[in-house]
Specification:
Number of domains: 1
Order of helices and strands: HEHEHEHEHHHEHEHHEHEH
Helix content: 40-55%
Strand content: 5-15%
Largest sheet: 8 strands, parallel, barrel
Number of strands: 8
CATH superfamily: Divalent-metal-dependent TIM barrel enzymes
CATH class: Alpha Beta
CATH architecture: Alpha-Beta Barrel
Strand order of the largest sheet: 1-2-3-4-5-6-7-8
Distance between the termini: 6 Å
Shape: globular
Length: 344
């Protein structure tokens, strides 16, 4: 218990947007019982002096930073995908490398050994396959809700109160339907075909940044993502990581919420994905997903089996609680308490 209590970090994504002083931000996180924090991708330049002071005074330990950190000058709020390493535009890849190197230098300053990385996405000239799928999915949900409402109101025509439907059950039925699976799989095939050129550029970008990370003794954790078009595609993640042979520099960072959202859509099996990625695991973003599909919720209140997740956690892994800014201080404490009880 004490080891986990000392090691569990809180991501600054919960509170960085409302702070003007980095020292005050760190103080708030420490007051909630955290000895370690992750500096996320919403750290503005104005917060840096206070953060450096807090680290110098040993007020807190920084477990990890999330690329880009601090934010590039052109960004005023969290922008981890501002520049993508898989972009077909060479100028964008150059900017990605420049600001990634800035992140790595900042990690050294704050003593963080690991960097959480996004790996870009597939690109479509004639419109996003994911966006088309999302529009179709929204229309299907709306039709099913309207049909269920009409059915319930018809069964009780004299009801004066608004009839409500169980949207979670309707979504479950939709995701199990042949029409959904056919549309989903066709979308994935389009994305896979479009991603080939982007994967080549992604590999080149990681090869370019590797020496910079190696010289500084840093480890890059490639995060699984929630978007269908984001790379690497989940089914190809093990193969992609295997091609990055330097396991000391390149590891896998598991986001429980992102994996659960895709588990719900039948895009992966959460446990099976963790089993496949276990040899390269270096860290976790821990948060729950509600029945309605909202992530970054309080662990233990949603649909994720954290006992299952705990089976894959090892002492050398970095554990970060990544919560929505909409959650209260009490909810942050409840999240910490639940994880300390469940993950041991």
């Amino acid at each position: 218990m004490s080891s986990l209590a000392d090691g569990l970090a809180l991501s600054s994504c919960w509170c960085s947007a409302r702070h003007e002083d980095g020292y005050a931000m760190v103080e708030e996180m420490v007051e909630l019982g955290f000895k370690r924090i992750e500096l996320s991708h919403g750290i503005r330049i104005a917060l840096v002096p206070g953060i450096l002071k807090a680290v110098e005074e040993k007020l807190v330990e920084v477990s990890s930073v999330h690329n880009f950190c601090p934010l590039p000058p052109s960004a005023w709020q969290a922008a981890p995908n501002l520049f993508e390493p898989a972009s077909t535009d060479k100028r964008e890849r150059v900017l990605w490398q420049r600001y990634t190197e800035q992140t790595l230098d900042f990690a050294v300053k704050v003593g963080a050994p690991k960097i959480v990385m996004h790996s870009g996405s597939a690109w479509f000239f004639f419109g996003s396959a994911e966006a088309k799928f999302e529009r179709w999915l929204s229309a299907q949900k709306r039709e099913r809700i309207e049909a269920e409402l009409a059915k319930l109101q018809g069964e009780d025509a004299e009801a004066t109160e608004l009839v409500e439907v169980n949207e979670f059950e309707l979504e479950t039925e939709l995701y199990a339907s042949a029409a959904f699976k056919q549309r989903r799989d066709r979308t994935l095939r389009r994305i896979k075909g479009a991603s080939k050129k982007n994967l080549r550029f992604l590999n080149e970008s990681y090869a370019a940044i590797m020496p910079y990370a190696q010289e500084r003794g840093l480890q890059l954790g490639l995060e699984n993502r929630e978007g269908l078009e984001e790379l690497p595609l989940d089914a190809a993640f093990p193969e992609f990581m295997e091609a990055l042979e330097d396991a000391t520099t390149f590891g896998y960072w598991h986001d429980t919420g992102h994996a659960q959202l895709k588990h719900r859509l039948g895009l992966l099996d959460h446990r099976a994905h963790l089993e496949a990625m276990a040899p390269r695991l270096v860290g976790f973003h821990l948060h729950d997903v509600s029945e309605g599909g909202r992530d970054h919720r309080v662990p233990g209140t949603g649909t994720i089996d954290f006992k299952m997740v705990a089976e894959f956690i090892r002492p050398e892994h970095t554990l970060v609680l990544e919560l929505s800014p909409s959650l209260s201080r009490d909810q942050v404490r409840a999240s910490r308490d639940y994880l300390l009880e469940t993950l041991t």
